[in-house]
Amino acid sequence: MSRLRPLAPLVASIMMVSACTVDAGAAGASSTVLRIGLSAESGALDPHAFTGNFLLLDAIYEPLVTYAEGGKLEPGLAQSWTVAEGGKQVTFDLRDGVAFSDGTPLDSAAVKWNFDRWVGNKKFTFFRASQIISAVDTPDADTVRLTLSEPYEPLLQELSIVRPVRLLSPKSATASGEFQKPVGTGPWTVESQSATGVTLARNDAYWGTKPKLEKLEFKVIPDSQARIDALGNGELDLIGGSYLAPITPVEARSLTDRADVALLTGAPDVSVILGFNAKGPAGDRAVREAVRQAVDTAALAKALLLGYGEPARRVFPPGVPDSGTDLPLVVDQDAARRTLDAAGYTPSGDARVKDGKKLSLKMLIPAAPAEGQLDPRAMAAAIAASLKEVGITVEIAPVDSAAYYDERAEGAYDITFFEGLGAPYDPSGSIVSLFTSGARAPLWATPATEDLVDKALYATTPAARSAAYQALYDAVAADAGFVPLVYRPRLWAVRDAVKGFAVPPTDVDLELTGVTVE
Amino acid sequence: MRVPDRLVAAGGYVTRWAADTVGVLLAMSVGTFALVLLARGDPAAVLAATRAGRPATPEQIEAVRVELGLDDPAPVRYLRWLAHASTGDFGLSLRTNTPVGPEVADRLGVTFGLVAGSATVALVVGLAVGVAGAVLPRGPLRGALRIGALLVTSVPAFWLSYLLVLFLALRLHLVPTSGMAGPRTWLMPMAVLGLPAAGVLSRVVAVTLREALDRPYVRAAQARGSRPLSIVLRDGLPNAAGPILSVAGFGIGSLLVATVVVEKIFGWPGLGAYFVQAAGARDVPALQAAVLVMGGGFILANRCADVLHGLIDPRARRSSS
């Protein structure tokens, strides 16, 4: 017996693991449960914290204002609102008869309690509404009045984002304000949560249209190929979206062979953009102009997006509000050569030389793609090949993704990639970070663009706002300050057994009300 | 009262070993800290961006830096961490803002189960194939075992994983593609981790055992008429224990490293996956705890192999005291 002793902890540990886990049946979908892939752990399901998965929070918690298709703002928990005092006061009329899933009524006191958790708090400076609201008043149980320190038109759109504006039951925090458990007003409630997944149950007391499904099972599968396999094998019903279980175009292509899986694409909300550093060779407008003329974005879209996306013609895709009109971007490599010739860059072998210096651009890229994103190496190689055709040498500099954003902020590049933030933040969220010099890593910032950003943000009428946005895009285009490359595709894949699923308006939403599983 | 000599020796051995271990762990924590500094990538920037769900402005990053005390000089931060860690307080994760200690403990349970199961696969398969390789006559079967061992040792873990998923899950539908829910889901991750270690182990077992079986005492046992199985178990393996155990101890360390890949592919929320997330966010407290636990596990596995060797082989006991 003594010889076996060393094995005892081993046996015990195996038994321990088996005791901790539940044997879930592999196949055999039930008609009331939808199984959804999740690329990372759900995080804290506290709407006022920073780690919770957007879509899970969206399923549990609701906003006062809802972001609908095309950026339309619709009533959420507020059934109507009025703007007064020249835009410095917004009054919300709360929906009647709504309660949190623990029975606490949704009244103005509950809304104020929520707002007090983030209004004026320095941790939330990332959205301006948190700093600009100077008072939250509750004239009666049905009414919430926000007073702003200055008029701020994007306020309503910012109130539709997920963290931290969604409403938590005041009873689910301790007296000292510490988060206890996830309780919201939304169509789903949390049944269980662990490192391997989350199960949501239908909120049978939901005020709106109740979902047909009874349960949502989110399974954490960090590896993207493994999620594709799980979907193909019938262990998952739904994957996709930037924040849920991202799919790359290559993986999407591999799914088209499967007879029982449908691939869905949503209207894109992000443009991938090539930006320039004005300090260095790209400070010469002729160089930027030549790059813009030389990069074949249609070929790039075809090669990288495999038919799932379009070449970009705008700073924000057409589905984003105030995205303006398509910029006149024509690919013409001969024109690029002429531009460089005229600016004094003379051909010398494969390259070009001006004043004895070779024209060479350092292209900074993240060494590995972010989850579900286009591979920056492939994109960089394709762009470098286009530019080589006209005599511009590109030196590709891959760095670790955590270091990438630091190096970009320090300007350690001649050309690199930029992106918008996507719905529901854009366009107001991105123009500050892309076009003002106070941002950490602006795409293109000049006194003129900063002036136009201010005009766009503080415009008082929709027409003036649209005009200011268009003027901003035109100003950057006139500087040849960027090259819109492609619209990032929004890909989702769903098993044919799932009926009634449509790609949600934004990748932070999960709209499953009418969905059933056969 | 006189303490027996043997106890004094054992006490000295334990003290020396503990001092060695603490020294190695300290060096590891300095190394981890320094590597994160050298790797660039600003944890405050990563965290500020995580909070916003998008790139942060310089003021937001500065605010996070001050909030977390990341604006102090590096040596101050390290010593502050060390002072807390020495009391068992590993601090808050920068990424999740929750205590690192309990998080790592949860994940350690998962990884420990995975490593224990994989080590079982490695030991059982490695010993069986190794013994077969030693006692089988030279021929096609022995050659096949050797080539098989070489193959599973040479393929990278991620490739072996996808291969198993392709055949066992997608073609044959024997097991689910991923997850951590019951014995059927343990098979693939434990095989992916265990088989390469089994491959190495089987070669060491085969070679050292064949050598041991050539010794005069084995011929004497054969002459006494002992049965072949008993000769392998009683005369062969114990005498070949040294190299086998040190390879096994080292192999468990390598298993720990490979969990990083396997846990991601099969969706096991273990220490390896945690380490990768922490590294991406430059989450120093989480990285430190994960590295210390993994390093401690590695040292412990090797030390266990030494002690076991001493128990099995008296010569090793004499030489080490």
From TrEMBL, chain A:
InterPro entries: Peptide/Ni-bd, SBP_5, SBP_5_dom
GO molecular function: peptide transmembrane transporter activity
Leader sequence residues: 1-24
Domain Solute-binding protein family: 72-439
Superkingdom, taxonomy of origin: Bacteria
Biological process according to GO: peptide transport
Protein keywords: Signal
GO terms for cellular component: ATP-binding cassette (ABC) transporter complex; outer membrane-bounded periplasmic space
Protein name: Nickel transport system substrate-binding protein
Organism: Micromonospora haikouensis
Phylogenetic classification of the source organism: Bacteria, Bacillati, Actinomycetota, Actinomycetes, Micromonosporales
UniProtKB/TrEMBL annotation, chain B:
Listed InterPro entries: BPD_transp_1_N, MetI-like, MetI-like_sf
CC annotations in GO: plasma membrane
Location within or outside the cell: Cell membrane
Membrane topology reported for the UniProt record: Multi-pass membrane protein
Superkingdom field: Bacteria
Family annotation (CDD domains): TM_PBP2 (cd06261)
A Pfam family that the UniProt record links to this protein: BPD_transp_1
Start and end residues of each ABC transmembrane type-1 domain: 108-305
Gene3D superfamilies: MetI-like
Signal peptide: none
Keywords noted in UniProt: Cell membrane, Membrane, Transmembrane, Transmembrane helix, Transport
GO biological-process terms attached to the record: transmembrane transport
Transmembrane segments annotated in the record for this chain: 21-39, 112-136, 148-174, 186-209, 244-266, 286-305
Record family assignment: Belongs to the binding-protein-dependent transport system permease family.
Protein name, entry field: Peptide/nickel transport system permease protein
Originating organism: Micromonospora haikouensis
